[in-house]
Amino acid sequence: MTSDAAAPAPASSSILPAEAAHFGKLAAEWWDPRGSSAMLHRLNPVRLGYVRAAIDSHWDGDATSFAPLKGKRALDVGCGAGLLCEPLARMGAAVTGLDAAPENIAAAAAHAAAGGLTIDYRAGSVEHLAGERFDLVTCLEVIEHVARPAAFVAGLAGALAPGGLMILSTPNRTALSRFALVDAAEAVGAIPRGTHDWDKFLTPDELTTLLASEGLAVRDVTGLVFSPTRGFALGSSTALDYLVTVTHS
């Protein structure tokens, strides 16, 4: 890693250069379900189910519709190589994918082009969107990687259009998450080493407070649980990881 990658983030950005460099190195394998992002591929169907249900509930949509986001703008912050952006585009949204790592943006753009999808991919920070507003803002497994969570949440709030919907997910800061996501998963290679800093995980109450400070209200909190036999699923326990649905207060 170069000295630039370890440098502090600029004052106007919540990006941690070391985090961007870490994930940028994984860009080439992002779409490989057996590669370094295998855990995300296992998580994605469960997360997509939650996102789709939240979309239908918020806009009184038809669960059988193929394009529940038709006519809407969606922003995925910390998009990686596009695992969520592409399904959102197929749901009819005009999608913008934003990521701190230019390598991820390049991989995302190439994959979307190969699949015939038009997605506006950008490298940068959510604080620099210059007043753009989106009907749907998603940010999954990202806030635990930023330099200043409060500034980051302010950026997310600024991107959410009136009447819009925001969906976030993040690990909880518990003994279970330390063991499962750091001590065990990184030790056996299920998650690349150095991916998580447990001290930066946010509890649901902490995240709710940050959101409330920006005029946002949490409408739902659902746990993401893991079973050796069932894999990942939605559940009542938030001890490992959780998803939240957010709107303007």
TrEMBL record:
Residues 75-168 form the Methyltransferase type domain. The keyword rRNA processing does not apply. InterPro entries: Methyltransf_11, SAM-dependent_MTases_sf, UbiG_MeTrfase. O-methyltransferase that catalyzes the 2 O-methylation steps in the ubiquinone biosynthetic pathway. S-adenosyl-L-methionine binds at residues 47, 78, 99, 140. One of its GO terms (molecular function) is 3-demethylubiquinol 3-O-methyltransferase activity. One of its GO terms (biological process) is methylation. It comes from Sphingomonas abaci. Belongs to the methyltransferase superfamily. UbiG/COQ3 family. This is Ubiquinone biosynthesis O-methyltransferase. SUPFAM superfamilies: S-adenosyl-L-methionine-dependent methyltransferases (SSF53335). Its EC number is 2.1.1.222, 2.1.1.64. It is an enzyme of class 2 (transferase).
